[in-house]
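Hi U.,

Before I forget, here's the chain from the pilot set. I'm dumping it here mostly so it's searchable later in email.
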Amino acid sequence: MSFINSIIKAFVGDKSDKDVKALQPYLNKIKTFESNLITLSHDELRARTYFFKDQLKHARAGVDAKISALQQEVEGIEDIDKKEDIYNAIDALEKEAYDISEKTLLEILPEAFAVVKETARRFKDNSEIIVTATAKDREFSGTKSYVSLDGDNAIWKNKWNAAGKEITWDMIHYDVQLIGGMVLHMGKIAEMQTGEGKTLVATLPLYLNALTGNGVHLVTVNDYLAKRDSTWKAPLFEFHGMTVDCIDNHQPNSDERRKAYEADITYGTNNEFGFDYLRDNMAHSPNDLVQRKHNYAIVDEVDSVLIDDARTPLIISGPVPQGDRHEFNELKPKIENLVSLQRQLANGFLAEAKKLIKEGNTKEGGFLLLRAYRSLPKNKALIKFLSEEGIKQLLQKTENQYMQDNNREMHKIDEALYFVIEEKNNQVELTDNGIKFLSGDTDADFFVLPDIGTEIATIEKKKLDKDAEAEEKEKLFQDFAIKSERIHTLTQLLKAYSLFEKDVEYVIMDNKIMIVDEQTGRIMDGRRYSDGLHQAIEAKENVKIEAATQTFATVTLQNYFRMYNKLGGMTGTAVTEAGELWQIYKLAVVEIPTNKPMARQDKEDFIYKTTREKFNAVIEDVTALSQAGRPVLIGTTSVEISELLSRMLKMRGVNHNVLNAKMHKQEAQIVEEAGKAGVVTIATNMAGRGTDIKLSAEVKAAGGLAIVGTERHDSRRVDRQLRGRAGRQGDPGSSQFYVSLEDNLMRLFGSERVAKVMDRMGLEEGEVIQHSMMTKSIERAQKKVEENNFGVRKRLLEYDDVMNAQREVVYKRRRHALFGERLKLDIANMLYDTCELIVQDTKGTNDFKTFEFDLIRYFSITSPVTEADFARLTEIELTGKVYKEALKYYNEKTERSAREAFPIIKNVYEDKNNQFERIVVPFTDGVKSLNVVTDLKKAYESEGKQLVADFEKNITLAIVDEAWKKHLRKMDELKQSVQLAVHEQKDPLLIYKFEAFNLFNGMLNGVNKEVISFLFKGDLPQQSAPEIQEAREEVRPKEKLQLSKDEIPNSEAANREAGETQQRQVTETIVRDMPKINRNDNVTIKQVATGKTETMKFKKAESLLASGEWVIVNE
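Structure:
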């Protein structure tokens, strides 16, 4: 394939070269402006920023005037249809204004980039810059140590503190950095090598896009980088009167965070940006919102954020009813015994297989070898045996034989096992033997799900009376729920014991299970495995088992970042994932040339038979490199390996530092030491992101930094990231990877060719192969894993796209209610939809009685048509008549409510003793009551109309939020249940889409009915002025927040069946403030129409409550 690519390149040319060449005219223009700007005074240079802003304002003036005129016009219009047309026109004009801004920014670009470069040059060449003080300078002088005032002048110093480190500005943009800045501005990904100054490149498009005043976000992978970069680069922007802030410096929902978003340039981490979006969509007042519209974002380390974290939905969640009940501790001893027995079995199979293969009986030997592999694939004795000549080929040949015809013969292998581990798919499955063993001391059906369909048919054949039949069915469903939960718990415990290893996938710190990021080696604080797996690991390791939670609000990072009008990104490693970045985000990758030619020597991989030989070779080579005066960075894939190598180096007496998930707090200090002569640093992949290892002249002379990779990672870009630590800005250096056939990648995805070549050559212990063909074979194995991982992410996105479509509808409705300006339109649409629904439900059966009842129940109006007209008119005509009558009644009712409320409001407002700004007014529909907070002055000036508008807003928000929470719970349950469709040869995704549509449709209809019913019936109770209360600021109990994430390892099966549900979830927990009613609790309910009350169990009362005719009475 690479040969074909090289031929295509020779004739067609390289895409990145073409992209860079297309930007050359802009680069030439920047150069022209540079010579002019040098001659300007400091004040004149600063004046260019105001000139650019005026240019943008002038270009948009015509469209902005039209938008303003339409906004004024819409306020005076009562006609709902006309309002809708005007709002659509405003939306179209805003899109047009955005396009004009983008076109103008492209015209400004060359001079704007030259201004930023000239500013950087002046800060580098001058320890102080004296300018005429502006209002902004005076403001900065009070908060920034590097700005001071001297009369009418402001003095800007070129030294300041960046995240605790004193820096002196010493950077000017190179030509390649200017190219990188253009690529970012155009909404593409700039791939720039380590040490090429990505943070400086970002200053160019940040300045340019901040000129619009619409806000620019720079997204980083961790809060250290966000805080460092926002202070490091801020003076460049502040010098031109722009404001810079970092959201991670401030508490969520605080005024400081709101101010950070109002800044021209805002830095922050991906999770915080996403969480603020979710929090904003749970807000109950426009004043609670912190974010502005999503205008333009630059994502630093874009591959890490948009690919590694792309399977990570951000979730705000709360407690599941009885979420702390589980059977992990009860079932744990059974699983421990089961795993122990299987281990004994696996060792027995392996010993017998070795004996038979030695005797030449490869058929039966291969059979037992496959059994040993499927029972315990990570068995160290098995891994060692597989590295012997011809053994791996025998295993693969036997496996292929039993896997043909859709695993038709595989049951013969599995029947002797207690459970089967599919390591490639990250799945564990109990066999009949396993179920039999687990049920040994209990009922034989203890772990077997009842067949619901058959059991229901059996119950119905008994011809029981209604109550007895309902009771029997209730018992059956309870049995099914208990057993399905038990089997799920069992499976997760089995996974925890057989697939997850301490110090590899997770570590234990402060008596908690902490997940280690497979890409960076960093601890992912608060992140949790999903679907009960984390609780299973907690049970396995004897730490506190946390309670389960349910979703209140959710968005994946993929869908969050797709909301921005324009998105750019920068990283050193994106080209290997270019296909995915284009398919999902429509982001093209452009490789930016390096400022100085690359001098690093990347050697072909060393391939050994066993891990022991490989590590011995690593220690030998590291010792020699260190003694030669070269710093060495050893890259490992897990905490366990980094600690093993540390012990081996100690035995050799080699001084070294260890940087892994357990030592992450010393990261900055260890990285600073890593470039010194002879220093050896062992690091998991965490040394790869956002850190530069700087070398002294002495080290450069000795050959630079030596990178030693102890294993190939599943993903090529992680290997490239490690390599990229050496060779920055033309520095010398080298990189060498050491691989063994026992490594996970080679074991699972390595081609047979590698093993065959080693066997043919008859390599002795300790001997090594090094050849470009072998390195390419390893890269092919990595590509297999990358394709698999992309499949999982794409599948998850397809599921989340369903949720996203629903989320957009609900959040749009919330926004309209929150701001109020388009709420009247939404209410009219809800009213029409409810009328349509009532007509559809009754017209088909010609049920005029129910039609009349529903009109009274929801709208409190009598039928506008006779029974004869009801039978004669079409559904559309009936809907039109009912809608017209209901809307007329509602408008009269709101006017009456405003008139009735106004005298009370007038008394309170004109009373000199009452100095209230906001007041609480109670509304009730006869069953429920709602306190509405309104602005006293506005309510007085509008003669009560503002109170009615606030009533509409409050009731809409309350009902939409409650329904959305319930709906998300149902969607979570649906996502779990549809996975069973795979056993019926059906696509779970198709069933999910169909069922999700029906669920959402039902939710919207329910919301419409409930909102309309309360709006029509809700009224002021008989209230006297003294009882009106002042609305005080109250702290909402809403957010007792606990941030956590649910994590799932990569899995091929996820791509096909269960993996869609295996999400890493970020969760904030909200604590319940109302007691939960259990199904068997007694409740008192009251019939609304007659006032009759009854006491019964909640499970029996549910159907009556759902009808809307009965309500719960608080005793």
